[in-house]
Amino acid sequence: MESREIRKFCEIDATSELLLKTAIDRFGLSARAYDRILKVARIIADLEARQNIKPVHISEAIQYRSFDKNLV
In CATH, what number is assigned to the domain containing residue 18? Predict the structure, then answer.
């Protein structure tokens, strides 16, 4: 999925955006990590048959990223 597609299919609300930006700042993650977290959140939302990505999906995706990189 390219950046253009990510923006189209992984739209998030203001609360989710704030949560994601806070995680990016706190853990010093890159723009690439931002996109990866969005893609994982999209998959989580899809598995729950949700059309929109919610903050809970962003949180779960951040946790997976944190465990992957031992950021916790």
Answer: 1.10.8
Q: Which conformational region is residue 12 in: left (phi greater than 0), alpha (psi within -120 to 50 degrees), or beta?
A: beta
pTM of model > 0.90: no
Domain count, the chain: 1
Q: Tens digit of pLDDT for each residue in 12-30?
A: 999 999 999 999 999 898 9
Range of the domain at 17: 3-69
Q: At residue 60, does pLDDT exceed 80?
A: yes
